[in-house]
Amino acid sequence: MKNLFERRAAPGRAGMVKAWVTEHLDLAETDIVSVAELACHEPDCPPVETVVTVHGSNGQHRTWHIHRPLAEIEQTDIVTALAEQIGH
Amino acid sequence: MEAHRGAVLCLAAEGQSGAIVTGGDDGRFLRLSPDGSLKEIASFGTRLVDCVAAGPGLYACSSSRTAHVWRSDETTSKTFEHPSTVGGLAFDTKGRRLAVAHYGGATVWERGERRWKATKLVWKGSHGAVTFSPDGKYVATSTQENALHGWRLRDKADMRMSGYPTKVKSFAWVGTAPFLATSGADEAVCWPFDTKDGPMGRPPQSCAYGGKQLCTAVSGLVGLDGVFAGFADGCVLAGRPSNDGSMEDMVIKGSSGTPVSALAITPDGWLFVGDEAGRILWVRLDGGVE
Questions:
Q1: Which of A:15-54 have CB within 8 Å of B?
Q2: Nearest CB to B251: which of A42, A53, A57?
Q3: ipTM given for this complex
Q4: For A55, which of B213, B255, B287 is closest by C-beta distance?
Q5: Which of A81, B132, B243, B286 has fewest C-beta within 10 Å?
């Protein structure tokens, strides 16, 4: 019987974004990267943003908001976004 | 597994055993065990089983105005009559009391040495889902208005938890206070029950702001200060209640365009998300939600 609770690799672009984040931040196997495309319902906001969250195995989490749909995100967007927050 | 011959109208978890009890429009009240075995507790023929509840060693269901209560080791039930169709049932954590919501308020049935004693909690209008606070000191119901209603059982002092733009269809006890987290607004509205007066005369706290779209489902666990909120566009956010919205929310699931219709969380950290298209998504909440 298929184990529906098994941890699986994300398909498509989400999997690629996770791999870029994991590589760039040198994350461990126990750290979790989540990628979600979020519609914004506020006026003057971009219609869709992609939210990347890293859940550290120590319980801490970090979040990046990238103002474009997941399908349009390139590795350079990830590197830039991560660098900006690290720079802060 | 085909349990009911028709729609499943209601479902409640039994607790530690992992079993569930269900009611259907086929008039049957069933218990389903984790090993897949099915037991018919009662059948009411052509009458629907509208509401069900399970407590420690107890089951309850309602059909029309009557609530039926069984001890798990007995086959005969106690029956309790009410002034109108029962809208909701809930046991307290010890299984000593059963709250029944109906038109005009709620009735709390308390198990005594020989018989069950009724206490009436009055508030006009129709009352649906009902819940005891984890400490058993309060009862709250959802109403047909855009508000919840609550009673302190010690003195029947009552409180109107209002201000919602829509009806509150989902609520959950969460956190250490604890809070009664609720849907029905553009964020999870969380009423504090941490003092002797509960939320009386106090504003609610909030979290998981959905950006001017409606929160359609909430979930959480008593003792864990995290509220999970599902929204009309399909996203699920996690947040911590605060007075000023200063706590940062986390995105658990992105927007799909299909409203979240149900959320459930297990004590060992699995979050289940159901949507109006019939899909169920589950996610392991390792790490970052504490």
A1: 30-32, 34-42, 45, 48, 51, 53
A2: A53
A3: 0.85
A4: B287
A5: B243
Phi, psi of A77 (to 5 degrees): -65, -40
Given a cut of 60, whether residue B134 has pLDDT beyond it is yes
Mean pLDDT of A31-42: 89
CA distances from B87 to B53, B90, B217, B273 (A): 12, 11, 19, 24
Distance from CA of B121 to the nearest CA of A (A): 40
DSSP secondary structure, B206-253, as one string: EE---SSS-EEEEEEEBTEEEEEEEETTS-EEEE--BSSS-SPPEEEE
Query: Any idea what DSSP says for residue B175?
Result: B
Q: Report whether A49 contacts A65 (CB < 8 A).
A: yes
Torsion, CA B19, CA B173, CA B102, CA B124, rounded to 10: 180
Closest Cα in chain B to A40: B211
How many whole angstroms separate alpha carbon A76 and alpha carbon A33?
18
Beta-ladder partners of B284: B270
Is B287–A31 a contact, with Cβ atoms under 8 angstroms apart?
Answer: yes
Per CB-CB distance under 8 Å, the chain B contacts of A45 are: 211
Residue B77 tokens, joined: 């039930």
Distance CA(B152)–CA(B156), nearest Å, equals 5
Q: For residue range B63-76, what is the model confidence (pLDDT) as tens digits?
A: 999 999 999 888 89
Phi, psi (degrees; rounded to nearest 5) at B117: -105, 135
Residue B236 and residue B216: Cα distance in Å, rounded? Answer: 10
Q: How many CB atoms lie within 10 A of CB B280?
A: 11
- Number of residues assigned to chain B: 290
Nearest to B241 by CA among B215, B205, B286: B205
CA distance A76 to chain B (A): 22
pTM of the model: 0.91
Contacts of A69 in chain B (CB under 8 A): none
